[in-house]
Amino acid sequence: MNLDLLIDSGNNMYFILLIYTVLGAGIKFIDAAYDEKTVSKKAALVIAPFLGVLWAYAMLINQYSATILLSILLGVLLKKKIDNYAFLVGFFIILVIIIPLGIELMLLPLVFLITAAVLDELGNDITDNNKKSSISKKFSFQFAVYFFGRRYLMKVGVLYLLLLHIYPWYFLLALIFFDEAYIITHLFCKSKEVLLIS
């Protein structure tokens, strides 16, 4: 594998934005297949290896991407959200690729972003559970649902690193693309569910 070519690709903003968009959409598709059962599990298993390779590739291209994606990965791992066969396949492929090749990380930003990722997942779980048990009209509750539902703490963390001139600005945009693709795929899968019912 030509690592110089990887680094050149990693410096291409549009390439990074495309990868993060595909990863966000793919993760939600797998989630929808196993948790919401609105799309095919077979299709999810088919795309899981591709997503694993793409995720590992995005971690190899530069230290910024490696730090963000490892923090997301460890955040969901610590919250035990790698909980189906497709996610396990993708996770195993990522490890098989990055362990022998190695990745360059930014240690302090990694700790900072892992904390943000875990808190995002925790906040999302709490608001999800509260949504199911009660419907509060309070602005604070509705804002918390919105904030953690879109994993904004991670974005705030990347924005902070950007303002400190540690991160290039387009990685915040890449993270936004990741989350928006995740949300749009969720809406698509919900519409598939409606089609199946009708």
Tell me what the structure shows.
- The protein is globular.
- It contains 9 helices and no strands.
- The model has no long low-confidence stretch (mean pLDDT 86).
- It has 198 residues and is mostly helical.
- Helix 2 runs parallel beside helix 9 (170-197), helix 3 packs parallel to helix 5 (85-101) and helix 4 packs across helix 6 (107-133).
- The protein has one domain.
Cα-to-Cα separation, first versus last residue: 49 Å
Number of distinct beta strands: 0
The backbone outline, from C-alpha atoms, is: globular
Proportion of beta-strand residues = under 5%
Q: What count of structural domains?
A: 1
What share of residues is helical? over 70%
Q: Catalogue the unreliable spans.
A: none
Report Rg: 17 Å
Major beta-sheet overview: none
Write the layout of secondary structure elements.
Layout: H1 3-10, H2 13-36, H3 41-61, H4 63-78, H5 85-101, H6 107-133, H7 139-149, H8 152-163, H9 170-197
Keywords for this entry:
198 residues; mainly alpha; 9 helices
Summary, kept brief:
This protein has 198 residues and is an all-alpha fold. The protein has nine helices and no strands.
